[in-house]
UniProtKB/TrEMBL annotation:
Residues 8-23 have a biased composition (Low complexity). This is Uncharacterized protein. It comes from Gordonia alkaliphila. It comes from the Bacteria. Residues 1-34 are annotated as: Disordered.
Length: 83
């Protein structure tokens, strides 16, 4: 909103200042962070359970989980216009 002389209103100036001086949001607070953390935890759990052994099915499951985590992150970035 502007004043009668096309200059920003005091409220608009205050809002702009608040945005400029606000702390950036914590990425960990984004809903996708919990989803990705859970997926990565599942990948780690599979690794622990294998105890150094190689099992193709387990590697395939890890790949699926990592792909899901990647897709969730890409979607979140697309939603904020950074993808």
């Amino acid at each position: 909103m502007t004043g009668t002389d096309n200059s920003p209103s005091p409220a608009a100036l205050a809002a702009r200042a608040a945005r400029a001086t606000a702390s950036p949001p914590d990425p960990a607070d984004h809903p996708v962070a919990g989803q990705v953390d859970d997926l990565l935890g599942q990948v780690e759990q599979i690794r622990i359970e294998l105890d150094g052994a190689f099992q193709l099915a387990a590697v395939a499951r890890q790949a699926d989980l990592l792909t899901s985590a990647h897709d969730a992150l890409v979607t979140a970035l697309d939603e904020v216009g950074r993808g």
